[in-house]
Amino acid sequence: MNKKAIYFLGMALSSIGSNAQAAYGLNLKAPVTEIASQIYDLHMLIVWVCLAIFVVVFAVMFYSLYKHRKSVGHKAVQFHEHHTLEIIWTIIPALILIVMAVPATKTIFAMKDTTAADMTVKVTGHQWKWEYDYLDKDVKFISTLATSQDQIDGKAEKGENYLLEVDNPMVVPVGKKIRVVLTASDVIHAWWVPEFGVKQDAIPGFIKEVWFRAEKPGIYRGQCAELCGKAHGFMPIVVEVVAEDKYNEWIDSKKAAAAAANAGADKEWAKDELVANGKAVYEKNCAVCHQASGAGLPPAFPAITGSKIALGAIFGTDGKYMPDSHIDRLLNGKGVMPAWKALLNDVEIASVITYTRQALGNAATVDPVVQPAQIKAAR
Amino acid sequence: MSQNTKNYFLPGPSFWPLIASISLFLLAGGFTMVLNKIAMGTPLMIAGAVALAYLLYGWFAEVIGESVSKVYNKQVDKSFRWGMGWFIFSEVMFFFGFFGALFYTRNVSLHWLADAHGLTGAQALWPSFAAAWPSAGPAATEAITTIPAWGLPAINTLLLLTSGATLTWAHWGLMKDNRKQLIMGLILTIALGVAFLFLQAHEYAEATFTIKSGIYGATFYMLTGFHGLHVTMGAIMLAIILFRVLKGHFNSHDHFGFEAVAWYWHFVDVVWLFLFIFVYWL
Amino acid sequence: MSTTTAAHHDDHAHDSHGHPTGIMRWVKSTNHKDIGTMYLWFSFTMFLFAGAMAMGIRAELFQPGLQFVQPETFNQLTTLHGLIMIFGAIMPAFVGFANWQVPLMIGAPDMAFPRLNNMSFWLLIPAAILLVASIFVPGGAVAGGWTMYPPLSVQGGMSVDMSVFALHILGVSSIVGSINIITTIFNMRAPGMTLMKMPMFVWTWLITAYLLIAAMPVLAGALTMLITDRHFGTHFFNAAGGGDPVLFQHVFWFFGHPEVYIMILPAFGILSTIIPTFARKPLFGYASMVYATAAIAVLSFVVWAHHMFTTGMPVAGQLFFMYSTMLISVPTGVKVFNWIATMWKGSMTFETPMLFSVAVVFLFTIGGLSGLVCAILPVDIQLQDTYYVVAHFHYVLFSGAAMAIMGGVYYWLPKWTGHMYDETLGKWHFWLTTIAFNVTFFPMHFTGLAGMPRRIPDYSQQFAEFNMISSLGAFALGLSQLLFLYVVIKCIKGGAKATNQVWEGAHGLEWTVPSPAPFHTFETPPQVK
Description:
The complex is a heterotrimer. By secondary structure, chain A is of the alpha+beta class. Chain A contains eleven helices and ten strands. In chain A, the strands form three sheets. Chain A has a five-stranded mixed beta sheet with strand order 3-2-1-5-8. A three-stranded mixed beta sheet of chain A has the order 4-10-9. By secondary structure, chain B is mostly helical. Classes of the chains: A alpha+beta, B mainly alpha, C mainly alpha. Chains A and C meet through helix 2, helix 3, strand 7 and strand 8 of A and helix 4, helix 11, helix 12, helix 13 and helix 14 of C.
């Protein structure tokens, strides 16, 4: 069948009734990788084949429903077997299946071929955020939902990319083969960008790999596709495909930003500074479970307000942090609480600890403030 | 109608199903509470266990009573055969799931776990892990010392195989109406089963690894543990059969109770052979 | 142990004629018809309960944003909706049919093990209590999806334990029930009723029972591993100890895919019973129907990993499961062709059971074809865990299984109650259900293709229109089922007297006994020619 014709029909189908902005689609999103277009064509092929079978079979049935009724005086003919017919309708579907299996098999081999990649990005799923690690580039960041809680609760107008926007998108150069190695830290997530034809489960403790080569610059949005707990619907994926020079600029700016953030680790911070900075960190990373008020959602997510850990002593007599102390819990996690060691920098961890000790209804008297330098030493 | 052995025996109304329902409810609810450290759990579980014991005793007593009062005809006997056969099949499938887990982790997923996909150092999830069996997984701190197949497990294999033979010998005795051979055979079989369980308990006590020792410990104790449980149940069932033999319940042409337990015992035997080969030996 | 004497036994024999009345009639029942009735009412209660949960889901999804429930509650609703519909509504309904119809169809006096039969039913009650009560424990009901994948289900609270034990109990019930059905079919047939003369419904249930005893113990194993991982420190599903979270998925779907056929084969049996009756002509291709059913059953054990195409299996695994999945559509196609050939040149009338059956053939085929689309692995990569899949399995399970059950209820209701149901209201129920069902689920194909993941409480605005349509359809679908309840109750209370044969074109032993079927039937086996 003519590939262009299939593509055209598909696009025509997907544009029926849609307005200029294509507010809603009826079909798979327009592909921007070779694999995604193969998938698109395969889907159109199988849909037309199925539709053809469907029309033929049910034309027969409806003809029969219309003609062979008792009310029009049709008398039943008492046959109940016809071997030739039965053999034919077993063999023809089998042949159709073989025809469809061939292109599908080719695409599977292409999808699985992750060799000769131009670059590798390690993507880690966390409850409920994505971590991107550009191997060899020393660039690493967390990407979380940017839509405000007010929009979700209906207190503010929903934006154009409601639930499909993040603070730190993944940025990749156009036309390059990107290998994505996937894993997860807690439960199974799935990394999915429809336009790339890539969906792969991120499985804790295992590494799985996929690849894509985006052929058109643009911003592509996807979502986590494996139920991963309460905020499963709120951990989108945004990938910006840009020209190579822009990509290099972006890498440099990311490096500079990380250096600037780390620079603060050695200076002595004022309590108010830490609390103010900590509030932002808390609302971005912690509020989803422990709630913005600090009340938590017991029993799964304990309250911060009045918490023994948030009010208790941190450092032992030897000057090191104690097991099950506030710093221990933040750095190493426990149970559902993630280990933040690898996810936040020293300033962020010190700020959020100080914030949770001094705000949200808490006013710790022992170890009231934690400095970034102490976190650095504690790592 | 039911005392007429020409017709299929249909029991009258019975309370046992409801008691089964209540006992499993207490056991499940109680166990949930025990697991979640709720104090009510233990008494509920005990109540459930008592109800279950009462149920098994009472229901089987009723069926045995019906059997000895000769209300079952040939067709009913055949129903019991079909029923027991497919019950054992469902047990086979239960073990099949655990053996599947063993094969999959050992031959498939451990290798994937060891594959760092070209990542090195801190990027790789388990940089120094290599797939091998036995394994307690990449985060394990100590190596696993397995139990040599040709020590206790081989003796256990011998015990169970012999017990299969003594049970068949007992069956021959029953067929020939040789009561002495029947009783002797049953006693020997039970003794061999108990000896097996004793050695198995000894092996557990001596083992240097636990059920928490990674995937090896998990599959080992799950498979051998459920098998041991089945041997225990089989031994209890054999003891009941022995008791019934002493009461004179069976004769050479009517003894399906005996045969059902024998089938079960042979099934437990066969499962052990698979355990011996795939858990201990290979 | 030997205290039970023959004399004692006579009392029992006496009881079974003058059976107890009131609640004790049901609690102590050893009568296949009473037990079948209990199964059907239990199923309908659970159907309404889980349906109410679906209304909650659709209310939240009516428009973007969070309006009624928090995300955690939403996940509890979707999880319990799935678990209860599958294990509480669809499966018990089919067992209810088996109880009523199998002995009547093969000329048996009752099931082979009447007491175990009642136990199978009464085990449903504690399981249902555990599932429903889990809503009220700290942390709320199980929220990790009906598939309960670890590690998410290892994180959950005590409701996970309650649900696991509920499923264990349901497993015992199903295994005992299946053994009972297999034994009944093999050992209790009337003289002359050879295997290849059995009604198709009996055949489909025989094969379903085999699927159950092979699949349910495997589920029990998977759930047991889940419990030990949660509480006893095993590492089956934890990579740090050498386990694999995906192991659970393999074991679960080894049960789960046969489970899909457990829920559809008896529906095929019902269709194969109803269509010949109203076409007034024998079932076309009886032998090939039997072989197709058996082929589907065998193949259902080697396709499980098509539920896991995105886990990243090696190429060989992906190809094997894609090919085997495509293959299973051949015997399924044979069944559809046979039904249409049965209608062909018949003398059809369209009473409510026939309307449901024709609709099931039509709509189930849509679900079958969308299943074929999902079988094409590269396409499934885009569709896995989207609303397309939700549309697919509701076309199979609602317009396949549930609507076949409704058709079956209308078909046999006169035999069970002795009254004809209200045909006009029955037709109203049919049309409302069919239209509302399609309004609810057809748009989900589009939202899925366009990229809406399933199991999310909130969605981006591009999906708003279709979700609103789906929600409106769902509310109508839910309300329509109250009409079903009314029609059934009205039929039990009274109505035109049903004849023995009830339907002009009906054939088989169940139509030779009076309507309503007396408490005991075929105490002396009939002779089948």
